[in-house]
């Protein structure tokens, strides 16, 4: 028996375990080559193998780790198809890991056996969740807070900030020309960093930026609110979760979307920690960029 606990599905439904059928023990050869894989599919018992498709060659660690994890499970077949071949082969699979393949309604309509569209991370902006829901297909992602991905993204953001402030490219040129002491870079110390979106990545970023001596401002849809005490001793948090209060306390100034332009005017650096979707794509129009330059 194989049980897989899945995160909450997008598009309204609740993701549940994909229950595999009763399995025999077919011999399985996993091959990244599609022609070889097709031959394997013909030889394998069609009803006894759960087939998983990884879309495209990029981020190879995703399929490599998955293959290693299921190596002893002959009833799970893991394949990789070139991005351009996905529409033609997707009908043969039960689970699809999209990576950076866009899954529109036309492609989803071909996925006749599909039970789950999965992202190896959090980005579902390329998946037509409504179309998947109409076809009875679950859509799920892996929260960054439980995989370490949010930490990795936070560290990368700091790396990019430091590289820009220190003028990394110009510095490489200067060193290659044996010119020392130029260009003159800047420090993070004293900068105001605006974290747009205070989810898992934003929280891990704030924790790591604190020691640099920056001022942190952030927007979030909901913060734990403070209410006045009746005994006059000052405000207390309405949240009963100490961890939530600690997280909210990571920033010097916080607000909702109504503070977007005010915070942009104060910021030296803006870090967008948001998934790209219909709701967030409109948050950074041209006028937002203009506010940054004018300020």
Automatic annotation (TrEMBL):
- Which residue ranges does UniProt annotate as crossing the membrane? 269-294
Q: Where is the composition biased (Polar residues)?
A: 15-29
Q: Which InterPro entries match?
A: D-isomer_2_OHA_DH_cat_dom, NAD(P)-bd_dom_sf
> Do you know which Pfam families this protein is assigned to?
2-Hacid_dh (PF00389)
Q: Name one GO molecular function term.
A: NAD binding
Q: Which UniProt keywords apply?
A: Membrane, Transmembrane, Transmembrane helix
Domain D-isomer specific 2-hydroxyacid dehydrogenase catalytic: from-to ranges: 68-200
Q: Name the SUPFAM superfamilies on file.
A: Formate/glycerate dehydrogenase catalytic domain-like, NAD(P)-binding Rossmann-fold domains
Region (Disordered) location: 1-29
Q: Say if the entry is tagged with keyword Transmembrane.
A: yes
User: Which domain of life does the UniProt lineage start with?
Assistant: Eukaryota
Q: What positions belong to coiled-coil segments?
A: none
Record flagged with keyword Transmembrane: yes
- Name of this protein: D-3-phosphoglycerate dehydrogenase
Instruction: List the lineage, top down.
Output: Eukaryota, Viridiplantae, Streptophyta, Embryophyta, Tracheophyta
| Gene from which the chain derives | serA_1
